[in-house]
Design brief:
The protein contains 13 helices and 13 strands. The chain is α+β, with helices and mostly antiparallel strands and 407 residues long. The strands form four sheets. Strands 2-1-13-12-11-10 form a six-stranded antiparallel β-sheet, with helices on both faces. A three-stranded antiparallel β-sheet has the order 5-7-6, with no helix packed on it. Strand 1 and strand 2 (84-89) form a beta hairpin. The chain starts with a helix and ends with a helix.
Amino acid sequence: MKLALACLAIAGTLAAGTVDAVPAQAATLNPSTASCPTPSVIRPAPDVKIPPVNPAALQKAIADLPAPDATAAVVRVGGSQGSWQGAAGVADIETGRKATEHVRFRVGSVTKMFTTAVVLQLVAEGRLSLDASVQDYLPGLLPASYPEIRVGQLLNHTSGLPAPDLPETLEWVYQTRFKTWKPREYVALAVRNPIEFTPGTRQHYLNVNTFVAGLLIEEVTGRSYEHEVTSRILRPLRMRDSYLPGTSPRVRGPHNKGYQAVPAGFEDAVPYAGGHVVDMTETSVTSTWASGDLISTAADLEKFVEALFSGTVVPPAQLEPMFTVPDVTMYDECGNTPASYTSGMTRFVLPGGVVAYGKSGARFGYAAGVGATRDLSRTLVYSINSTDAKGSGQNQRSLSILMASFS
């Protein structure tokens, strides 16, 4: 039973990136009308050792692809205890072309790690302060009625900023998939709503926080967000296959196509695995911008994780927020779930007590994730071409890969 609960908790962690394109509505805090059990907590085991890589378990996690839940997957495991790379499935369901490891994919909310890292670089340079007011740096962006919000509260999602009210239907998402959003347009739509809670008292994972962080980067540097991420991280780390697409809806170079399951009769639907899907490969990512627009590869993301955790990307003195979970509860119905997000990442404890940090992300057709132990004894990068990347059902495949990678 404990293992099952632990797996559910990890699955919830992996699902963190699934709110990228469809903003969550504000939760209703009314514990009296909800059943609120005491949250299950898995305790870290300080002396636990990462086992050698298990190729058989990793291969098994993706061996059945293509399958109804996913058309392809790419997995890359590394660290001091061994390495493994694998791919399975098809790159294109129409041609049946075999999926390969060396492909680009949309990383979704893994982008938040890059945005956070640039902000912390600016802190290290003395150009930003985590304790300073967002309103001081970006006057007029937030309503005058809002309380002071600190820069650090954006990064760890304790700002209280609300999500924009947007339709949540797949039909709307598909019909507007080529819409170009302006970052300030997105934030302005969000802050029509009241602040959700007093900043610093709860945690609510929302893209609006990283949108504002992206605007801070542009304001302080005088250059575009895309320029800063490229010049500060992608180019120095020689992440040659990674880029920020801006307004382009395409994925350049080799890639596995991304599909979304839809009901029969849906616009442009084609048969797949006893159901129907639509091709979501070409989609504007301006709706997630600094929260979720990066395109990368497994090899490039492995480089980034190794450099970040070792203190190469962000100086060690400023890196600690990325490994620190604020001592607050989540903004949910019960109000008793401990926070799990750090600044830019998530802290999770696996069955057995292994502590790891990382980030998952999802765009329609793509569920991606990175994770690592802090000592880099184990690293993981994966991309799953999930047919329901935004749904809770996609977690099982991610969970299987995670467990095979760290167990």
